Amino acid sequence: MLGVRFSDRLGKAVRTPARDALISTSVDPSKKGRAFGFHRAMDRVGALGGPLLALLVLSLFNNQVRLVFLFSVIPAILALFFAIFAKETSVQKSPATSKNKQGLRNPGFVIFLIANIVFTLGNSSNAFLILRARELGLSVALLPVIWMVYNAFCSMSSPIFGSLSDKLGRKPIIVISFIYYAVVYFLFGLANSLLAIWFLFGAYGIYYGLSEGIFRAYIADLVEPHNRATAYGLFNTGIGLALLPASLIMGAIWTEFGSKWAFFTSAGFSLLGFLIFMLGLAFRKSAKQKVN
């Protein structure tokens, strides 16, 4: 099972940076937020429909779990079929681009990467959200339903905030995303009723719309096209490396001090990431003023 999980993550690591780079170079620069928002929405629609189809297979075939995994090959093959029709845009270095941007050494990208790594130390496995719901009395039968609520809000909010970032700019929404996550996790810590948990799962889905697609569009704003796949790879690697200690920290604090302080700690890491991002923006603004 460990080998299967490792292979799954390896496949995602190979696919994701190239996919994000392809999206960023395939759309009008003024619509990058909308494009990434739409992509993340479709990803969540799949996450919403997948479990439903799995339940259908289980009900039709007398709970044959192996059939669920066998049938999951069909969507993968369909995805490969449609990938044949995707046209990759040619990306070439230009003297103007090289002069105006600093590639992966762009301070904006480096600071954004550091801010997200620090933030991710508080972004532990979503399994802790399920544990919190169970702690407040949510039945096992309703776990798929509350997860569907989360995914539904992810799907609805991603294209909305992605398009909004094209109009207002990425930075204001990224700032809001850090603060919003801290507030939501703080409220998870304070929650004392099942009704609050249902609302918070929906609210947490909105955070996904404020972050996932917009973060990728922001990286495309900072890094020139011929370096984007590497930039996305570095970003995903940094996040991935921080996820393991994030869950260890969450679990240790939960065990020692209770769930409330575990969620408060996660909120604190989000605020720390926010401060790093804001300091980075201030530093870059000051540097530009000195140059001018």
Radius of gyration: 20 Å
Q: How would you characterize the largest beta sheet?
A: none
What does the average pLDDT come to?
Answer: 86
Number of strands: 0
CA-CA gap between termini:
58 Å
Reported by name, the CATH topology is Growth Hormone, Chain: A
What are the low-pLDDT stretches, counting only 5+ consecutive residues below 50? 95-100
| CATH homologous superfamily designation | MFS general substrate transporter like domains
Q: Which architecture would the CATH scheme give at its second level?
A: Up-down Bundle
Shape: globular
Helix content: over 70%
Series of secondary-structure elements, N-terminal to C-terminal: HHHHHHHHHHHH
Q: In terms of structural class, how would the helical and strand content be classed?
A: mainly alpha
**CATH top level?**
Mainly Alpha
Total tally of structural domains: 1
Name the beta content range.
Answer: under 5%
Tally the helices: 12
Describe this structure as you would to a colleague:
- This protein has 292 residues and is mostly helical.
- The chain has a single domain, classed as Growth Hormone, Chain: A.
- 82% of the residues lie in helices and 0% in strands.
- It has twelve helices and no strands.
- Helix 6 runs parallel beside helix 11 and helix 9 packs antiparallel against helix 10.
